[in-house]
Design a protein that fits this description.
Length: 438
């Protein structure tokens, strides 16, 4: 390995690690609400129930939706790094402020703003990856980032749940906000916006060749000279855009189960809030195992094999939900049921993660070009619109007597739709590539 190659690799590692740490902070700011949820429900000062907690989550998801429609365009115009770092700082401030609140309306507003800031993460990183990495590395880079988000989700869930044993739910928001603001202040030193920020590059180096390859790829893209409106019209005229948007929307509903899991376990098995939070870490652990190697595998699979693998994992997710509902309708003993439930939640997280994270991310960069931030934002806006509706409806349904069974039924139907839509999208993607080669 030459010195130039080593330098190139060190830059890439620094960029990826910076994105992973930064996105981990955004996940921290969002995860704390779900962990604190059971303790908030039993706090007499708040007078919350499952329905009103679902409304808080719904307003947060509404912030995600609005953010996806605006932050993607900002990232395209201002630069991914700038928007990414600003979003971490903003989310840190609002997360800290959440710990001071006592009224539902205030929770709605501040959580809306927190998740609005968090929504800038994926579009911003799409721009950073487009600028720094060749297409044959996109899958593995997204795999690293998705792994980071899952590691942070597991770590923060366990950490915050442990802290909940010795402090109030308010303390969790304070801790999360302080950690995130420290990272936001230090990150600009490591996350550079363009290659020239690292210094002059020798035109004969491998790095220069890589930059030339990236520039050539950008020059050949059909949207290379298009303005935002023209790119938007190009996207909405594509059947693949609508399929991936609807597919990711369905998967986002399934992912929204994560924030309900601590309350689900607490109310179903009578667990203490801290213990329910720790048990809920099974979901992000399953996601972590899946995405850890998913990016590398995705890059090596043919388009045809991707269809088969993703369809298979989504079928497993359907079986997990059917099994959870079956357990709820039959009595096998609380301890045995709890162990099985945690295991099924782990497998469920494992099964839906690859289809949720990687195909959309890779497709957005290749199809969106320099407007990839806009494309990611549009797709995620659809996703979080579906998740927002589920937050309101799911919270209201779960709040009824025996409502968790109906809650799981909603997830089962959604899982079937997600499997059909994502399989269709991936097949069309495979067919188009095959026809292009022919």
């Amino acid at each position: 390995m030459t010195m130039n190659t080593k330098t190139s690799l060190s830059w890439e590692i620094q960029i990826v690690v910076s994105m992973c740490v930064g996105y981990g902070m955004l996940m921290l700011c969002r995860t704390v609400m779900g962990v604190a949820g059971p303790a908030m429900l039993i706090d007499p000062e708040l007078q919350l129930d499952t329905a009103s907690f679902g409304a808080i989550l719904g307003w947060g998801t509404a912030g995600n939706l609005v953010g996806k429609l605006t932050n993607g365009v900002l990232a395209d115009r201002l630069g991914g790094s700038k928007v990414f770092i600003a979003s971490i700082g903003f989310a840190a401030v609002t997360t800290f402020a959440l710990g001071t609140l006592s009224t539902n309306t205030a929770f709605f507003a501040l959580y809306f703003l927190t998740v609005f800031a968090k929504s800038a993460g994926w579009p911003s990183m799409a721009n950073i990856i487009r600028s720094w990495f060749t297409q044959n590395k996109h899958g593995r880079v997204w795999g690293f980032i998705a792994t980071s988000s899952r590691i942070s989700s597991v770590a923060t869930t366990l950490l915050l749940s442990s802290l909940l044993l010795v402090m109030s739910w308010r303390g969790l928001f304070f801790i999360a906000g302080i950690i995130a603001i420290i990272i936001a202040i230090t990150l600009p030193k490591f996350l550079k916006n363009v290659r020239s920020d690292f210094g002059e590059v020798d035109p004969e180096t491998d790095e220069s060749v890589k930059s030339s390859s990236l520039s050539k790829s950008a020059d050949e893209h059909p949207l290379k000279e298009s303005e935002t409106l023209a790119a938007f019209l190009f996207f909405v005229k594509s059947p693949r855009f609508w399929l991936i948007s609807l597919g990711v929307s369905s998967l986002a509903v399934l992912f929204e189960f994560q924030v309900f899991i601590p309350i689900y376990l607490s109310q179903t098995f009578g667990l203490m809030p801290a213990h329910a939070g720790m048990a809920s870490a099974a979901f992000p652990m399953g996601c972590l195992v899946a995405v850890f190697s998913g990016g590398f595998i995705y890059d090596k699979l043919s388009k045809k094999n991707i269809v088969v693998v993703m369809c298979g994992t989504l079928l497993v997710a359907i079986l997990c939900l059917v099994s959870l509902r079956f357990l709820g309708a039959n009595d096998f003993g609380d301890q045995f049921e709890l162990i099985l439930t945690i295991g099924l939640i782990f497998v469920f997280g494992f099964a839906i993660s690859p289809a949720y994270y990687i195909p959309m991310s890779v497709f957005s960069i290749s199809f969106g070009g320099r407007h990839c931030g806009l494309l990611v934002g549009l797709i995620d806006a659809f996703a979080y619109f579906g998740a927002m509706i589920f937050d309101f409806v799911g919270g209201a349904v779960a709040n009824k007597e025996g409502g968790w069974q109906d809650f799981l039924l909603i997830l089962m139907v959604t899982s079937v739709l997600a499997t059909i839509i994502m399989t269709t999208f991936l097949y069309l993607d495979y067919r188009d590539e095959r026809n292009a080669k022919a």
